């Protein structure tokens, strides 16, 4: 009893200061539903701000490494991009920025991307391991403020007239290191608060933060270009630091931390699936943090992690190079300005929002994560082909094909990094262990992030020779991503066929989920 009281007091001291102040002003404890809403909003804003800072580099690339064939597209009056029509004419970016305006400038930008994503991928493994052992609120706050600092420092190279390649390389590497703490932290926090009911759909909607961050980052960076490319980095950097401070003040990482777990157990009869955390804590012995190798051995982790390697290779090539590609490609016989290309590229992320939600909903309905992910990746192959061949025909064709491509490319990426990671982090082989979610999430997304580093790097070299070769690489990657899930797809289909042949279960029997399959 004394130990329980001590633990309860220790947990209460971890309550965020903002929540304590809110409860003092209100005069009553914050409710469980309010905490759920707060967690969703804060983690959404948190990771959206991460992606907003990540997107700025792709918008500024065409300014750092100018093109010789840049023109201004004269937009029809009914298109929303018309307000940006003259913005680039007022900027004097034609000379670029050394060292990126040299002949090997495109390759140098590819190396910058590799440095960021390489450190990000490596840091992800350590961040996930750390996330299961420390206060996630503190880890997330440090990551966000550090990201903001080094993102702004990259832009400061303009103000201080810095032209040393290794300065920019170092700033991106440090930004990547701090960014690596983000994803394992937010997934683990959401996993502590939300149950298994409609997990794919809920996390598909929540995962829109990726595309929302990309869109907002593109719009902010494009809007700031007329003031100097430094502001395209500084403004998102300041924003993520402010969101990080808000996270520190208000984010409750779990029901235990704010002392309402006991109240939940008193109301078990009133709880729904949404109220039940992803993991029920069973004993302190089972709360021992899962080791790195042990997490890799969880059935399904390896194939989904390798699949995500190729999914993120495709997705991040678009993330970092799509605005550059658009501004280098004549659409309907005319070229776009840097800022207009950046704004147009956001339609890929709009398609990504739809794709993430659609993939989550379909996987919930079919109870088949692997089948859904594989179907999207295989469908992305013709979409990539048609976007390359027909995307330059007209603006209408470009918008339509970009939207569909974004939907099919980002759908499996969103599904694997959210619902699948949560499924595997709560796999039956863990016997209820509640301290594996961040580690499993980090393994899957960390492996994917290696692919995210490889794709933009290869694109930097290959695009100098042929963009058609880049798209061939992307189509091949999508094919391999789908093939890696073959065994899991077959197992899901077989399980479905057997369940249809089997007699109907008794009323008290629980359905067998095929989303987190055990090894046969």
Automatic annotation (TrEMBL):
<protein>
    <submittedName>
        <fullName>Glycerol-3-phosphate transporter 1</fullName>
    </submittedName>
</protein>
<feature type="transmembrane region" description="Helical">
    <location>
        <begin position="468"/>
        <end position="490"/>
    </location>
</feature>
<dbReference type="InterPro" id="IPR000849">
    <property type="entry name" value="Sugar_P_transporter"/>
</dbReference>
<feature type="transmembrane region" description="Helical">
    <location>
        <begin position="166"/>
        <end position="194"/>
    </location>
</feature>
<keyword id="KW-0812">Transmembrane</keyword>
<dbReference type="Pfam" id="PF07690">
    <property type="entry name" value="MFS_1"/>
</dbReference>
<dbReference type="InterPro" id="IPR020846">
    <property type="entry name" value="MFS_dom"/>
</dbReference>
<keyword id="KW-0762">Sugar transport</keyword>
<feature type="transmembrane region" description="Helical">
    <location>
        <begin position="107"/>
        <end position="126"/>
    </location>
</feature>
<keyword id="KW-1133">Transmembrane helix</keyword>
<dbReference type="GO" id="GO:0055062">
    <property type="term" value="P:phosphate ion homeostasis"/>
</dbReference>
<feature type="transmembrane region" description="Helical">
    <location>
        <begin position="437"/>
        <end position="462"/>
    </location>
</feature>
<feature type="transmembrane region" description="Helical">
    <location>
        <begin position="371"/>
        <end position="390"/>
    </location>
</feature>
<feature type="domain" description="Major facilitator superfamily (MFS) profile">
    <location>
        <begin position="41"/>
        <end position="494"/>
    </location>
</feature>
<feature type="transmembrane region" description="Helical">
    <location>
        <begin position="231"/>
        <end position="251"/>
    </location>
</feature>
<feature type="transmembrane region" description="Helical">
    <location>
        <begin position="206"/>
        <end position="225"/>
    </location>
</feature>
<dbReference type="InterPro" id="IPR011701">
    <property type="entry name" value="MFS"/>
</dbReference>
<keyword id="KW-0472">Membrane</keyword>
<feature type="transmembrane region" description="Helical">
    <location>
        <begin position="396"/>
        <end position="416"/>
    </location>
</feature>
<feature type="transmembrane region" description="Helical">
    <location>
        <begin position="138"/>
        <end position="160"/>
    </location>
</feature>
<dbReference type="InterPro" id="IPR036259">
    <property type="entry name" value="MFS_trans_sf"/>
</dbReference>
<dbReference type="GO" id="GO:0022857">
    <property type="term" value="F:transmembrane transporter activity"/>
</dbReference>
<keyword id="KW-0813">Transport</keyword>
<feature type="transmembrane region" description="Helical">
    <location>
        <begin position="301"/>
        <end position="321"/>
    </location>
</feature>
<dbReference type="GO" id="GO:0016020">
    <property type="term" value="C:membrane"/>
</dbReference>
<comment type="similarity">
    <text>Belongs to the major facilitator superfamily. Organophosphate:Pi antiporter (OPA) (TC 2.A.1.4) family.</text>
</comment>
<feature type="transmembrane region" description="Helical">
    <location>
        <begin position="341"/>
        <end position="359"/>
    </location>
</feature>
